[in-house]
Amino acid sequence: MKSDVLIHAEGMKALSSQLDIVEVERFITLLLREPFDYTDWQKRFIRRQNS
Fold it and tell me: Which are the contacts of 12, defined by CB distance < 8 A and separation ≥ 6?
């Protein structure tokens, strides 16, 4: 299992490879601003893909 530090580093690397620094900060702010249930989102996403 990956450590929290490694996950953090890889996540930031992934974000910064696709977004500039301001967009990365905006993305993180959006995540913190609104409650987000990844498990619920994933279930809905898979249902839509199978429809």
Answer: 24
Predicted confidence (pLDDT) per residue in 7-22, tens digit = 999 999 999 999 999 9
**For the packed helices 21-33 and 4-18, what is the interaxial angle rounded to 10 degrees?**
120
Contact 27, 15 (CB under 8 A): yes
Could you tell me how many residues make up the chain?
Answer: 51
Distance, CA of 47 to CA of 39 (rounded, Å): 12
More confident residue, 3 or 51: 3
